[in-house]
Amino acid sequence: MNRVKNAGRSNRNGRSDPSDRRSSKRRDASAKPARAAGKPDKPGKSGGFRQSAPGRQPGKPQASAPRGQTGPGAAPAVSLKSGRRKGEWMELKLPDFLAGAPVNVILKHIPIPAKLSGKLYSVGGAVKQGGSIRLKLFPNEKPEFPPDWVDLNVLYEDDFTLVVNKPAGVEVHPSAQGQRGTLAHAVAAYYEATGQNCRVRHIHRLDKETTGPVLYAKNELAHYEFDKAMREKQIERIYIAVAEGAFEERKGTIEAPIGQDRHHSTRRRVSETGERAVTRFEVVETFADHTLVRLRLETGRTHQIRVHLSHINHPLAGDGMYGGTRRYIHRQALHGEKLVWRHPWTGERMEAKAPMPDDMVQLLRDLREADGKR
Fold this sequence. Notes:
It is built from six helices and 17 strands. It has helices spanning 103-107, 114-122, 183-193, 220-231, 304-311, 358-370, and strands spanning 3-9, 84-86, 89-93, 126-129, 132-135, 154-157, 161-166, 201-202, 212-217, 236-244, 249-255, 258-260, 268-270, 278-286, 290-297, 334-342, 349-353. A seven-stranded antiparallel beta sheet has the order 1-11-14-15-10-16-17, with helices on both faces. Strands 2-3-5-4 form a four-stranded antiparallel beta sheet.
C-alpha cells in the first residue's frame, strides 16, 4: 500500500536555516592519512552549508561504541584499541591468557569478520611476534581504474575510510566499458598521488546529477564492515532538496514500493510489485511555489527520493525525468547533506558534511528574491 504518514502542520511563512553553520576546520591537502588505525584523524567541526574551496575536511567522531565486546562467560577479546599500523600490517598486543596460544586460536579472540580472519590465516597474513599479533590488513593492491587527475574534495580520511564530495555531472563508477572521467577514476588518481596502494571500493552510489558525500573502504576489513552496515541500515544518508509546490505537512513519511518503469529502461516508478521504499521528510523553508526539505532514507532504492517526491506531486526542481521544471536550475535540486557511519575498526560514530553546491545556493537565493524575502 502506498501511503504518506504526516506529523505537524507547516508554517507557510516559516523559515529555518538548513544548517547549523558551524565553521569548518580544514586539513592541509598534502597531509598524509592517519598513521594509527585505532585513532582516526583528529576531528574538526563540519562545514554544513558554508561554501568553501575543495580540500580535506575531517569528519566528526561522536560517542564511542567499541566493537568486539563479548558476552557473559565468553573469553575476553583482543582489544582493537591496542592496534598500531606498521606498513601493511596492524599490530595488536595480546592479553596474558593468549601469550602462549597458536595463531588460529588467537584469531578467534579478535573481533573481525570470521571470513576475513580465516583468509588471513590461510595466506600467512596473521603472524605472532612475541606478545603481539600482526594482521596484514593493508596489503599493496592494484587499482582497477586508470587515474584521471581532477581536483578531488576529500571530506574525511583515515587508514580505513575515505569520504569524497561528489560534484554534479559525474558518475560514481563507469556504466559502460571503457568509460572514463568517473569518480572512481578520480579516487584512483588520488590514491596514486598520495602513495596509497588501495583498490577503489565505493560503498554506495549517488545519481550522476546528485551531489554529496560518497563513502569508500580502503581495505578489505572496512569493506566487510561497511557492506554489513549497509545491509543492516546502519549507514545514514541525509539529503537536502528543493521540491516544487508547498507541503501541507511539516513532517511526514512517504512509504511506497518502487519498481522498474517497463516503458523506460532508466526510469523508476511507484509499483505495487516493487521493492519496499521509505523516505522521511521535514520542511526546512517554504517559498511561494517551492519547498526546501530535508530527507532521510530508510531504504536505498534507485531514484528513491526523486520518485517519492514526484509521487506526492512535489517533484524536485530541475528534475525533468520526474516532472520537475528547469526554470531555476538545470538538474535535480538534490544534495547529500550529511553521511553518518560507524568506524570499521574502532566502532566510533562518525559523520561528514558536504557544503551545498553553488547552483543550489543560487537557487535558494533566487527563490527568496522572488518571494521578496531578505
